[in-house]
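Why does residue order matter? Because the sequence determines the fold. Keep that principle in mind as you read this record.
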Amino acid sequence: MNFDRLKRTLHLLIPLMFLVTACATTQDHLLDMNTSQVQLRSIQSRAFDTTDKEKTMRAIIATLQDLGFMLDRADYTLGVVTASKARADSVQMQAYASLRITVTVRPRGEKQLLVRASAEYLRSPVTDAKPYQNFFNSLEKAMFLEAHQVD
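Structure:
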């Protein structure tokens, strides 16, 4: 009888051990961060010497509109702006969003705001530095003009 009981217990434990091992391995990989992700985050982020979140959000919205984006959502409390660029599908003649960008604003220390932009093209992350550089260069100009109240 003890042998049958041991056999049943092993039949239950062995699959459970495989499941636990698989889950642990998956969780370990979820927290892995390779160098390319760190580099991408540095490309996507800029610190600005201001604490005025509302003016920064307005400058982000104006910059995105100047770059041809349509505003999808803006939440001043959370500091999040989402916008997209639409293009017409030549076959179906329907507009669809091919480029989407989310910009977040959060405090960085006591005297700065950190702005991070994350873009997707056709649902794939944009990893090239050039579009982010263009966005941040335009944003810097907009913030300069707003700080000096130039229309």
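The chain has a mean pLDDT of 81.
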